[in-house]
Amino acid sequence: MLAAPPEAELLGIRNRKVDSVPHAPLTKRKRHRTATETATAAPTPPVTPPPALQASVLVLNRLYMAVHVVTARRAFVLLYRELAEVIHLEDGVFANYSFEGWIETGALRHHAAGPHDDWVRTVNFTIQVPRVIRLVDYDRMPRQKLNLNRRNILARDQHTCQYCGHHFPAHQLSVDHVFPRSRGGPTTWDNVVCACLECNIRKGGRTPKEAGMHLHRHPERPRRNPTLLMKLANPKYASWRTWLDGAHCESGE
Ligand SMILES: [Zn+2]
Fold it and tell me: Residue 78 and which of 2, 178, 191, 234 are 20 to 30 A apart at CA?
């Protein structure tokens, strides 16, 4: 992938303002704006929480193939350095914007802002967090490897304990080896499942059969990136579907 540009470079000029997004509620900031700032600022966005910079942005290569997911903060760095452009869905058609163009047209889009849009307020302007960007000089193909890690296992099992069937937040879930690791069970897609702490402790170093427990679903390698699939369930990222419905993002076998 691209070498990570120093974010300070972006944040030092235009993005210093992006970085200065207050952690205090926006309403508080609004009260302290001067008349000059009010005159030059774009219309007040519906919401401007700092977490907007942590929203996910789908990255396409030059050939419009999905290759990566980055945070909005990282996406702004790529846009500012002109390594990427915004791909934005408008009336069913995708339009391309340079970073400058994206800022300039922000006020217009703001008037039709949807409930799932994210906006970041800076001192002098308001910018919408793009959902998709395209690397203008990056030709490489999507990475086919699907990492076997905790995040992807939880996403594959949809944060549901595979023994009791209940849904849990990530911090209350563990990764269980169906055939115990202590007895040589491998760490492979078909031998690990998401389990709540209680079920994991109850099962201990036993097989499900020995523990009298039943798997809700036989674990297997997901055909598609489960973390991306979970994102698609969020209406915020509905526009990603266009780029993920192709074969590009399927995990390699
Ligand atoms: Zn459980």
Answer: 234
Residue 98 predicted with pLDDT over 60:
yes
Domain-by-domain residue ranges, the chain? 7-135, 150-211
Q: How far is the CA of 91 from the centre of ligand 1 (A)?
A: 45
Distance 93 CA to ligand 1 centre (A): 45
Round to the nearest angstrom and report the end-to-end CA distance of the chain: 22
| Partners of 71 in beta bridges | 56
pLDDT digits (tens, 9 = 90+) for 134-170: 999 988 877 667 889 999 999 999 999 999 999 999 9
18, 176, 188, 206 from 146: Cα distances, Å: 33, 19, 12, 28
Residue 187, SS3 per DSSP: coil
Q: How far is the CA of 147 from the centre of ligand 1 (A)?
A: 24
